[in-house]
C-alpha cells in the first residue's frame, strides 16, 4: 500500500466539545504529539449550531452561546502543539490503534497512536426506530437538523409545528421557531415526565405559552407531499395509545426530539465491548475501554445533559490517556477490577468497571435514575453491605447524577458494587 | 413527432426505453413525477425471483425465468448492485412440505435451474438463525437481491445518452387517437407520437382509457416494510420466504444489496393509488409474521418503514398486448410480482408487439448499453487515493453512515439524467440511506444541489413536487 502512515502519541477522534477538552488536557498533562481528527470543516462539533445561551454556567460561571463556549477551547487548543486535521473522516479503527482516515488533501491514510480517545459524539434518533406510522411527505425533521437549517443556513423549516419529545433540543427548538415567527402548537412527550432540563421547560415552553402534553405520542401523520396534519393521542401506563384521546393539529412541520444515540460504529468496528444501557463503550474508572489504550468520553460514551459535564469528563480522559502514555502504556486491565451494577431505580452507571487500588483517592460515578423522586437516599452497596450513602433532595431521569466515593471504602471489596435509590416518594 | 412515447418511468418503462433507445427511433419517456423510479419500482422487496412461483404456462412464468437471467447480465454492465444469494422457501409443517414440493415441480416446468429440496438439518446449516423447528426448504440458487431503483435509473441514463427524451413532471391528461398517430397532452405540453407504450403502473388503466376503451382494471394492493440497520443485515444469508398462501408470497426476510435487512410485505387490497402511508396494524403484522421465520430480528434497529403498491389487475397474468383500439398502443400493465425480475423480458415482448404493430426498428450503428458508476466505498485504498488525487471531492465524505463522498453526489448531479431532489440524489448516491436517515447529511446534500444546479436553496425539494424542505429565509 502506498498510502501515508503517520505516528502520534495520542489520536483524538472528534473535534467537538469532548475531543477539544480531551486533547487540551492531554497536552497539559505532558503529551506533545497529538492529532485531532475532525470530519467537519471546523472544530466545535454540534456547539456551532447551538446559538442559544446557557452553556458554561457550571464551568465558567457565565452564560455563553455554543460557539462562544467552543471558541474558548478552540483558542486554547491552538496554543498547544496538537495537530488538527479538518475535513477528515475516520473510516476504520482497530484494537491495535490503527486509524484509517480520508480527506481531500491526503486521500486515504493511516495513523497509528499509542493511545486513542473516542470522542465522536452522538446522533439523533429518527422516525424509523420509534415506528411513527402515517404518510411519508416532507416536513418531518429531527430537531437538530431543523436547528442546523435555521442557525447555520438561515432558513425557517415551517410555519406551524408540533414537536414530539421534550428533550432539551426539542424544547430549545420550540423557542427558536417561535422567536422566528413560526407557531409551535404543541410538544408531546411519551413519558409522564419530561427528559429536558427544568430550566428549559420554563424558558422555552412556559414563557411562550406552548402546551406540553405529557403521556402523549404521535399516532398518525398526514400529508403526501408536505406534512399537513399530525394526530397525537394519550398513552396508557404501558405507553400504548388510548383510542378516543386523539387531538389533531394542522401543521406543516413535525420535529422529533426523541433521544440521542452515541455514534459507536467505529467502536464496534474495533470490537470494543458496548454497554447496552448507555449504548457507549464499557469503561473503567480511568475512562479506558476494554481495548487497551483506547479511551472514550463525552456523548459517544453516554449522553450528557450539559456540555460542562462533557468537558470535565473529557479532561479526565485526556489526563488518563496522558498518564497511560507517559507510564509506558502499561495495561490496567490485568489488575483486579470490580463491576458497578444498576441497583434499584438506577438506569446506568459510568464507569461500569473499577480498578481496585487505583491511584485516585476517590471514585467518581455518574448515573441516571429511572423516575423522579424527592428526599431520596443514593446507596452504594456490595452484597448486603452498604458501603456509603448520599442524600438527594430531588432526582429526575433528565438530570445526570454524580457521586464521589472515597476509595478507602472500596478496600476489601472483591465482588461487584451496586448503586441504588431509596426513594422518599415519587413525584 | 416521436416514433414512440413511453408513458411511465418505472422499471418497465425504463426497460423499454433502454432497448428502444438502441434503435434508430425518436423516442421519449413521459413521467408525472420529478424523477424516474418513483412508484412501485422504488418500494418493493428488491428481489429477483428464481421463477418457481408463477403457474406454468403463464406469461409471468416465462418472463420471470428469462428476465432474471437477463438481469444477471445487465447488472454488472450497468454498475447496479446485485447479489445472487439464492432463496429459501421454508416449510414448518407437513402441509408446507407439500407446498415446497409443488413449487419445486413448478420450477422445473418453468425452467428454473439448480433448485434443491433441503432437509431440516441442511437448511439450518446454511441458515443458522432461523427457527429450529423448520422441517425443510426449497433452495433456489438463482434468486438474487438488487437495488431496483438503481437498475431503473441506470437504464434510463443509458437511454438518455442514446437520445431518448425524458419529460419529467409531465402528467398525461389527454390522449387523442388520430389515424396514424396519437396526440398526447400533458400538464406541461402537447406532443405527438406514432406509437405509445403504456407503462404507467398503477395508473395504466386510466392512461389506456384516455385513448380508447380499456379491458382491464388495476387494483392497487399495498404492502408495508421495515428496513433495518446494517447491524441486522447478516442475521440471514438468503432471501427467506415462508410458504405462499392464497394471499401472496407472504412476508420475506432478506439482506439488501446495501447490507440492511428488509422484512415485509403485508398485503392490503383496493388501496387508493396515492396511499403510501404505513400503519401500526400493518407493520405489526409484518413483525409478527417475520418472527415465524427468525426470532433474531431487533426491531429497535429499524431505520425506515415504507409502503409500496402492487399494480395488481383484474387478470391473473401480465398484460403485454396492444389495446383493443389500436395496434400502435401497447399496454404493459398489471405488472405485479415478479415484475421487477421480469422487466427486461417484458420489454422484449413489448418491442415485439411494437414491431408486429408495424414499427420498423433497425439497430443504431452507434449506441450505448452500459454505464460506469463510481461507488467510493467499494474501491480499494489504492483506487481511492488515485481517485481523490484526480478529483479531491471524492475525499470529502458527506454521508457518514454509508461513507458517501461529495464526488459521488456530483457524479449523480451531472449524470445524463440528473436528479434535483434530496431523494433523487439518495437513490443514485446512497446518501441518507443509512441509520441516521439523512439527519446529518440532508442539509449538506441540500446545499450541494442548490449550488450545482443553481436552484435557490428554498426551492430544493425532498422528493415529489410540493415536498419542500425549508419554507423561507429569515
Provide an overview of this structure.
The complex is a heterodimer of chains A (427) and B (474). In chain A, strand 12, helix 6 (168-179) and strand 13 (183-189) form a beta-alpha-beta unit. With 427 residues, chain A is of the alpha/beta class. Chain A folds into three domains: 5-123 and 261-330, FAD/NAD(P)-binding domain (3-Layer(bba) Sandwich); 126-258, 3-Layer(bba) Sandwich (FAD/NAD(P)-binding domain); 342-422, Immunoglobulin-like, CATH 2.60.40.10. Chain A contains nine helices and 30 strands. In chain A, strands 1, 2, 5, 6, 7, 8 and 22 form a seven-stranded mixed sheet that branches. In chain A, strands 10-18-12-13-14 form a five-stranded parallel sheet. Chain A is 21% helix and 36% strand. The longest helix of chain A is centred in the C-terminal third of the chain and has 20 residues, at 307-326. By secondary structure, chain B is α+β, with helices and mostly antiparallel strands. Chain B folds into three domains: 1-81 and 145-217 and 312-373, FAD/NAD(P)-binding domain (3-Layer(bba) Sandwich); 82-144 and 219-310, D-Amino Acid Oxidase, subunit A, domain 2 (D-Amino Acid Oxidase, Chain A, domain 2); 376-459, Arc Repressor Mutant, subunit A (Orthogonal Bundle). In chain B, helix 1 (11-20) crosses helix 8 and helix 2 crosses helix 8 (339-356). Chain B is globular and about 60 Å long. Chain B starts with a strand and ends with a strand. The mean pLDDT of chain B is 96.
Feature tags:
A: 427 residues; alpha/beta; FAD/NAD(P)-binding domain; Immunoglobulin-like; seven-stranded mixed beta sheet; five-stranded parallel beta sheet; 30 strands; 21% helix; B: 474 residues; alpha+beta; D-Amino Acid Oxidase, Chain A, domain 2; Arc Repressor Mutant, subunit A
